[in-house]
Amino acid sequence: MNETRYISPETQFCELKQPVILESGQVLIGVQVAYRTWGKLNPERNNAVVICHALTGWADADQWWDPLFGPGKALDTEKDFIICSNVLGSCYGTTGPTSVNPETGCPYGPDFPRITIRDMVRVQAALLDELEVAKVKLVIGGSLGGMQVLEWGVMYPEKVEAIATFAASGRHSSWCIGLSEAQRQAIYADPYWRGGYYTIEQPPAAGLSAARMMAMCSYRSWASLEQKFGRNKGADGNWEIVNYLHHQGQKLVNRFDANSYITLTYAMDSHDVSRGIGDYDSVLASIQQPTLVVAIDSDVLYPPVEQEKLAQLIPNAQLGWLNSPHGHDAFLIDMEDLNAMVVNFRQSLDWNAANRDRSHLSRIWRVDN
Amino acid sequence: MNETRYISPETQFCELKQPVILESGQVLIGVQVAYRTWGKLNPERNNAVVICHALTGWADADQWWDPLFGPGKALDTEKDFIICSNVLGSCYGTTGPTSVNPETGCPYGPDFPRITIRDMVRVQAALLDELEVAKVKLVIGGSLGGMQVLEWGVMYPEKVEAIATFAASGRHSSWCIGLSEAQRQAIYADPYWRGGYYTIEQPPAAGLSAARMMAMCSYRSWASLEQKFGRNKGADGNWEIVNYLHHQGQKLVNRFDANSYITLTYAMDSHDVSRGIGDYDSVLASIQQPTLVVAIDSDVLYPPVEQEKLAQLIPNAQLGWLNSPHGHDAFLIDMEDLNAMVVNFRQSLDWNAANRDRSHLSRIWRVDN
Predict the structure, then answer these.
(1) Which one is catalytic: A328, A334, A337, A348?
(2) Disulfide-capable partner of B135 in A18, A220, B46, B344 (CB 3.0 to 4.6 Å)?
(3) Chain B, nearest residue to A184 by Cα
(4) What pLDDT score was predicted for residue B4?
């Protein structure tokens, strides 16, 4: 890591008073949560909107989701009290492998426990308790963020009024687990990995970079890369796509921790909203909140067939199609379209609240874009 | 490499009398070609069928394409003189990085020159000259094999009567180049890579295995892995998909050379039938042979849109759809269906030869399966 990981000066930090009991039974004490807020919590303390970020994201959601922020936008800075916290296990200020273990005085490193999506959500819920938020109007996020959104819906049915999940599944597929594992193995192949006990000066840069290159391909699509790079070569005689991937690999090495990458990909692989509590279909059927499921037609990681099934299984779900050539990452690229879908969804929620009639939501409808 | 790479006792070896002048201008002397033949060359010496194998394939095509072999099959062992040779740059008996460089007395290793698909085809053509084959009735192959097939069509219009390419493109896409590069970087990240100067006892096993895991995912599809493994765990508590990928990774380490993997993936990235000779559309339009293009509907590497364009650009092409959940590798899995398509194609060739009318071939038609 040659650069400091950027955390904006507006970032706030909360040390949770209670220990966090992980799903594994392990206990984390002194958990710190890095978070940002926008807008004001109303006197009723019921206008919170929770943003859940993706794998290598962080709390400064206005940086990576700017077009969704503003008056009248998906994230209404005038009406909402918007909160985004860095997830447990990450390396942007919330407790994770780079944090000091209060029991040993040393960074956790590879000894940071295996965590799950539910553990991430519990930490977010604990933060909201510290902020004395009574109700959450909406939980919203894509990819790993979307997995958290679904767990929010299942775990906190009384607290959460609506959820919006983009390019995510109710349980991680075999295909996604396989791609995660190949990426982890590339990191482990790096001699600087040292079983996770690497130094800040000598991280497993080559392995993490190779993992990121692999991941970047999976975040895009054949058509997207063909359109952007084709078989063009740069001034150095290399394929432009190769230079692009090296650039992306190096960027991630500069801003992300390999142990966090391992921790978070394992958490994604563990993702299954029904784990230990029932069969998959029934658990999704138990989600009562109005739900927006946004599927990306060119997503190779969470393909249309999986998104359609997800929307079918959640009783009050709307399925919106983000038609884009850009693949999985479209929720971070085609943001104007995404914003429009969320605005539309939120307007329908307001209309229903005013009319006390949710019957027209009890079926799937399409927000073709 | 803990196991000897299997080469059947029926394999024959031919040392080319002429030096091979590579597209790069470099010259290889004493090139050896490992090959298998089935059936007999007829007195007219015009019943040859050339099989081109995929990335990690080898000359024993009857082992990996058994359902296509036999009387009345796609590869008719009674009528055809079938030839399959290991490609230049591979490690199954044809000259490649593991071969001894006659100029130095040492294995080429990473100093083996960069080669192209055209170089592979030139070596195959030289073998056919040594065998005094006058005409080739059909060149057939999938993936890297399909790239060779297309180059055969462009490079030897007088010698080749028909071509059949499966799950391949006329030029390697940005997407495929990106996935190749990520795999190479995983190999380079391994400390045993040593710039390619590794020993037989200590190959870059972890890196090559990680590369293979990544590749295996790309050879299948979301649906294929979901159907086969889902979220099942093995007796060891690991995901079945993870165990499967580790098994596949180790298998490749046991049977393949990392420098060959690098050499052949670079060759695939170089693939463009129009390179240096014209624009892409015109070069494909110059292919006059009857052509069977088989597209796999679930192929993420060479997706339907690319296959359709390929078939549209080749004047005498038929487009056949291999509808399969298995992704790119379907040409090695759904072999009965593939066989039926090739048999059908060859019957149409025979019918046309008998009737001296190829007009009905001058359009694209679909062999839906």
Answers:
(1) A328
(2) B46
(3) B210
(4) 60
Which of A177, A186, A249 is nearest residue B241 as measured by Cβ atoms? Answer: A177
B212 is in an annotated binding site: yes
Q: Of A85, A90, A99, A143, which one is the catalytic site residue?
A: A143
Q: How far apart are CA B219 and CA B179, in angstroms?
A: 11
- Candidates B53, B271, B326, B328; catalytic one: B328
Instruction: Grade residue A86 by pLDDT with cuts at 50, 70 and 90.
Output: very high
Pairing of strands A32-38, A12-15: antiparallel
Element (H, E) at B35: strand B32-38
- DSSP symbol at A4: P
- Among the listed residues B60, B80, B257, B299, the single catalytic one is B299
For residue B185, the chain A residue with the least C-alpha distance is: A210
Residue-wise pLDDT tens digits, A338-354: 999 999 999 999 888 88
- According to the annotation, is A184 in a ligand binding site? no
**Is A326 an annotated catalytic residue?**
no
User: Are the beta carbons of B331 and B167 closer than 8 angstroms?
Assistant: yes
CB contact under 8 A, A222 and B306: yes
Q: What is the 3-state secondary structure (H, E, C) of B162-218?
A: CEEEECCCCECCHHHHHHHHHHHHHHHHCHHHHHHCCCCCCCCHHHHHHHHHHHHHH
d(CA A83, CA A138): 11
Q: Residue B312, exposed/middle/buried by CB under 10 A (0-12, 13-18, 19+)?
A: middle
Contact A178 B207 (CB under 8 A): no
Given a contact cutoff of 8 angstroms between Cβ atoms, the answer to whether A103 and A112 are in contact is no
R_g (Cα) of chain B, nearest Å: 20
Distance CA A34, CA A51 (A): 13
For A161-196, write each residue's pLDDT tens digit: 999 999 999 999 999 999 999 999 999 999 999 999
Number of A to B CB contacts under 8 A, please give it. 159
Residue A128 pLDDT exceeds 60: yes
Angle in degrees, 0-180, between the axes of helices A117-130 and A258-270, rounded to the nearest 10:
100
- Delimit the domains of chain A by residue range: 12-172+272-368, 176-269
Helix A174-188 crosses helix B205-219 at what angle (to 10 degrees)?
160
Are the beta carbons of B174 and A241 separated by less than 8 Å? yes
Between B173, B209, B239, which is nearest A185 by CB? B209
Contact A369, A323 (CB under 8 A): yes
Measure the CA–CA gap between A208 and A250, rounded to whole angstroms. Answer: 9
Average pLDDT over residues A130-138: 98
Q: How many CB atoms lie within 10 A of CB A24?
A: 12
For the question of residue B328 being annotated catalytic, the response is yes
Q: Over 60: is that where the pLDDT of B363 sits?
A: no
Quote the tokens at residue A43.
Answer: 């006197």
Contacts of A226 in chain B (CB under 8 A): 173-175
Instruction: Pick the residue from chain B with its C-alpha nearest to A229.
Output: B174
In the CATH hierarchy, which fold is given to the domain comprising A176-269?
A: Rna Polymerase Sigma Factor; Chain: A (1.10.1740)
CA B202 to chain centre: 28
Please answer yes or no on whether B220 and A175 come within 8 Å at the CB atom: yes
> For A267-308, what is each residue's pLDDT tens digit?
999 999 999 999 999 999 999 999 999 999 999 999 999 999
Would you state the structure tokens that stand for residue B290, as one six-digit string?
Answer: 């009857």
Q: What is the pLDDT of residues A41-74, one digit of tens each?
A: 999 999 999 999 999 999 999 999 999 999 999 9
| Beta-sheet pairing, B106-107 with B100-101 | antiparallel
CB B185 to CB A305 under 8 A?
A: no
By the 8 A CB rule, do A167 and A301 touch? yes
The CATH architecture of the domain made up of A12-172+272-368 is 3-Layer(aba) Sandwich (3.40)
Chain A contact probe: residue of B114, B117, B181, B226 with most A CBs at under 10 A: B181
Residue of A nearest to B220 (CA): A175
Clarify whether A299 is annotated catalytic.
Answer: yes
B12-175+273-361 belongs to CATH 3.30.1330.30: no
